[in-house]
Design a protein that fits this description.
The structure is a homotetramer. Chain A contains twelve helices and 14 strands. Chain A is α/β, with parallel strands linked by helices. In chain A, strands 13-12-11-10-6-9-8-7-14 form a nine-stranded mixed β-sheet. A five-stranded parallel β-sheet of chain A has the order 2-1-3-4-5, with helices on both faces. The N and C termini of chain A lie far apart (48 Å). Chains in contact: A-B, A-C, A-D, B-C, B-D, C-D. The interface between A and C is medium-sized, with 12 and 12 residues. β13 of chain B pairs antiparallel with β13 of chain D.
Chain lengths: 382, 382, 382, 382
């Protein structure tokens, strides 16, 4: 029998969107199964969620501390925990499981403070745990293809990067009408120092970093707050310089009518360019200098092996968000299985966003806020 | 606990594409679990597939006849069987399970002969079984939205339909090099009277029928055979007249370089038009007379309830082929649960392709072949 | 000084759309100037049009017969006449000018009857006149690029052609409200045997013929009449076989809501495919077997010389309908200048639609009507 | 007879691209005719250009000073001059003609220094001359439609603007190989303080200003120089704040492989958004809050009157760059005719870019350079 890993979940009770996404994405490949959880502070919701997934009631816990401790002490305890709480809880929950030697999957942004993120990294290393930060979009096969094209030198030396992530859902102050997602996203206590840069700007940062391998040298950020009574940004423009001399702009917005989740990344080099759009994730634009733009379609024979190995479907049969998510879990679980069976792994060989990606994200958010607070001046990244 | 139905599978051993698709699509919602199967004529493959999914070895059978009989006699026997064999076996396998009172999910085209399809319908009715024919593409949320728009009269009376399904995978005679899919698709013994119309033309017919509710009155077909040594069609053009006076053309091709699975349906009425493209399945074009064309995006508030209830993700987070498949299973399993618990259902209330859709598909293929054989003349549909 | 040819016009008075197009297109290059005309049966309009363009009043005529005769007898008489009347007058007007040794530019469809078209061809040859039939769309640079790609063998042997020309302007019976264009288009006395196939189906035929060089072997046509009280077709579906064994479908419609002038031609061969869309005329899709689809952009260095020589603007600065028109006139005037200066020309060396293209168009329309009248059966083309 | 205005040209000899564009664009409508010029410093080229256009040799001048003086003294002297020289000459040439009471059409950027631009404005006013600065792209019908939509309040209060103009032609240092355009564009003596921002960034500024009517309050600019040995920018990112509190980013680049002239402007308000792309100039995206995105197509009945009056062709028959240019001249000539016939005009009533647009452009370039020189800090616009 195909050996499934066992996982628990903190957060993700009935009515939670993102908990459901993690569970379905894991189910798509069937490499791990849910066996424990503390799904909600609402005891009733917590129990019902446990029942819904057929969990042993003794493994539906009332606190994450209890769960971490008890699962660590079971012979058949969970192999990893999935943390899908609001941002402000990531740190303490992750810490608790790492302390108990349990590997962690955590939503982004990893923590509010950089120091917290660094602490988690140390703890994971010390306790021999793996850590995945679920930046969904790098899981897309064609984002991997973009990276492969850049890595094999097909676009030459990178000069210019333009990336954006426009949404429209916060165009009105729906938090005043009690919209749940909007309530916590626009609340500094739950979201941290930034809403828009934190939530979606960080996806831009991660995707660019993933595809190009470049490090940010310095940045200038302008962050806007639209909508009466709001205190956190919902639109931001950022100018960046990278360690290789390239230049870039990022734009993220939650007030851009006409857009849902239109993450788009364009990388221009001396010899070519690539363009990936999340909403059209089965395709990739690739242009060589002096040649027409080509539209690469996932699943075709010309796709590189490092990307193609994540295909589940042939070309023209769309994959989507769940598959991207599943690809991240697939790589993480593969690594974890080897680790758990006593193998020695090099995390770099596994294509999932590890804790360093999480740390970079927290740093990026902090630097944007710092630049803004100083009057939109250059802020060095390191 | 969420009660899962139990299913078995005929076909779909390791290395099979479509068996994997059915299993993953069902897993996405977790409403049913695989417990039995005869996955391959190759005993070894069959056993290994059973092990891979952790099946009780006693429920991994060596023939579908044995499986049908034994499962029917178990208290915890399967609730339905999934048939993913080559076309020529659909009829006998389905018949065996229906005879034993087991509901059926079967790939399309349903059977080779219309008489066989009609016999299965009678048998299903007599033995109180449900029957789903897995025409994937009508499972897409935006195909459902197209239907909703047509049904509420927004495009007026339908006048013209143009639909196409171009692929390119058979542009070369890859069956001569042993490509497995190509081998059986181009073999009349396994595919039946038609390859291209049977495999993908039938998807056009089903999608148009689903969205419009129109019945074909008569058709003219031209079927082409490109590639030396081939005996079955790989390109076809069809002109149709519908019962309401509308006119249409269908084009399907397996030699159309540049296309993967580009099923596209356009419906033009007196007051508006809709256009759905499978490869871009999260969007739908809708135009009202005298107004600009609008691009509807899945997951937004303006989508009709009948379509929106199948959403798993918000707008801008792509759903794809697996979700379409899962939607069909979700509706089928919902209906079957009610049926199994003694409820009385009206199959029309459940949005999945039932045996009538399967029968229409077989008839459509037969009529195309008949028209072609008579010199591409009009052939009445009934 | 750049020597300009002199032309006259029949039809095209104030308020005429197409007369204005011809004049502007010619003006764009300044290779010829308007000096004479009979612009309208309405004497007043005719005179005012002459004044508007600063014509010598003695060269504003009251009949085309008078114009042909008098211009032929002037030392500075017109070098060619532009015929922009309703279809039914093309034959007699063209005949009159050819008889007087004046070259002709005529709108399509060339004539109502094939015999008339053949007669004009003989007459032109006998009187040493050139003849251009203004099928606009083959004038587009990227249509020429499509032809160049096909001619150099890049798509291999052609197997399948799909082409369409959907419009929406006749979705309602606007001729009943006196819309001028609709009045004559839907009137058999002025349009001839067909409205839709004649007006826009003929553009499909011409474009496919231009790009591929293939001859139609036989066709089946279905022609529909939508709208109460109408007697001519406004929607048609045609299946074709070409002389090389290729197969095709054409669809033209004037009732396709959402479309303006969306002429689209796709040519599929054994080694590649090209796709041209008139509304997006600065680009061309080109796919080689097993490779991603490329988007060629007019004005770039990779465009073939035979197409690129017609560029007026660099890539990314859109050219459009006027340029296509102007390209046809440019090639025609170049040929005519040589001819008029006593040179001997091979008409095939000049890239404009000559009278043979006009004859093919008339034949195509006739054959479609014949197939329809016989019950949509195969009709041989020759 | 339609009275044509008479114009002269400075620059634009044989081999010049932009001179040809101005002439063709003016010819398209035939509202003005070329009668005089000093086309090149190369006497031979100058004379040949005059001959090519059939000019009276006495009106082909050897210096713009001579031309201005002599034309001013002729009864049939030119009504306006078209200046198509390199940037650095705009100021002195324009000044000379204005001093002689001759209205001016001048390419952008208007001048190198703001003070020069202001001086020209005063001079034009004093001498009762009109002045058009030929920012081509605002001439597009759908740019005018975008403005109409914003002006009638359909997108509410503007919050965010993102605009870009990527090109790729300077990705290599082609000026080293003597490419003529590249030579002067990359030369500070001829181009002024900026290459990329000056040439194409200024088009972004003008288009945003035209559509929105907003004034820039302050900006931050980063300007990059890619390519060895270059001294002027060829890539720039700019963050802006507008007078109404809106926020924006502009990106312009001449090293963006895959792009030709892809000017794109997106305006997001509290109630809707519009998006215009120059390369796809016959269409406009328009989204109302909570509604699907619509694709407006030029030439259709739903286009506003202020935009539609510039149509030359029905929907689906592409207009392009020449028509945009011609629209600017059409509005300018209309105004000038009234002025010349003694009428009093309000320049705001005529839809062409006047000298204020030119001044704003020069200021924008200066402010970007100033911000860059100060280390990419906020610079106030006024």
């Amino acid at each position: 029998m195909q050996q499934k890993l066992k996982y628990g979940m903190v957060g993700g009770g009935i009515g939670s969107f993102i908990g459901d996404v993690h569970r379905r994405a894991i189910a798509l490949d069937g490499k791990a199964e849910l066996v424990a959880g503390v799904f909600s502070r609402d005891k009733d919701n917590c129990e019902k969620t446990g029942q819904l997934f057929g969990l042993d009631p003794s493994r539906v816990y009332s606190s994450y501390q209890e769960m971490a401790e008890k699962e660590a002490n079971r012979r058949d305890g969970i192999d990893f925990v999935v943390i899908v709480t609001p941002n402000n809880l990531h740190y303490s929950v992750a810490k608790e499981f790492l302390k108990n030697g349990i590997s962690v999957s955590c939503d982004k942004p990893l923590t509010i403070e950089i120091s917290e993120a660094l602490e988690l990294k140390d703890l994971a290393k010390k306790n021999n745990c793996l850590f995945v930060v679920t930046y969904t979009y790098t899981g897309h096969v064609m984002a991997k293809e973009a990276r492969a094209i850049v890595q094999r030198g097909d676009i030459g030396q990178i000069r210019v990067i333009t990336a954006e992530y426009p949404q429209s859902w916060l165009v009105d102050t729906i938090e005043k009408k009690g919209q749940k997602q909007a309530l916590w996203r626009t609340d500094p206590k739950q979201s941290g120092k930034s809403n828009c840069v934190g939530d979606i700007g960080s996806h831009i940062e991660n995707m660019v970093s993933y595809i190009t391998g470049l490090k940010i040298k310095k940045l200038i950020a302008n962050m806007d707050i639209f909508g009466e009574g709001r205190t956190l940004d919902n639109n931001a423009e950022i100018i960046l310089k990278y360690n290789n001399g390239a230049s870039g702009t990022y734009w993220c917005s939650q007030v851009a009518i006409g857009y849902d989740n239109a993450l788009k990344v364009r990388i221009f080099g001396t010899e070519g360019a690539v363009e990936f759009i999340q909403e059209n994730c089965n395709y990739l634009k690739f242009t060589k200098k002096g040649q027409p733009t080509c539209i690469l379609s996932r699943g075709n024979g010309y796709i590189s092996e490092t990307a193609a190995k994540f295909n589940r479907l042939p070309g023209g049969h769309p994959e989507g968000f769940f598959e991207a998510f599943a690809n991240i879990y697939s790589a993480f679980v593969d690594a974890l299985k080897i680790k758990l069976s006593g193998g020695i792994i090099n995390e770099e060989d596994f294509d999932y966003p590890n804790i360093d990606a999480g740390i970079d994200g927290v740093k990026f958010i902090s630097k944007c806020v710092e630049s803004m607070e100083k009057g939109s001046v250059w802020v060095d990244f390191d």
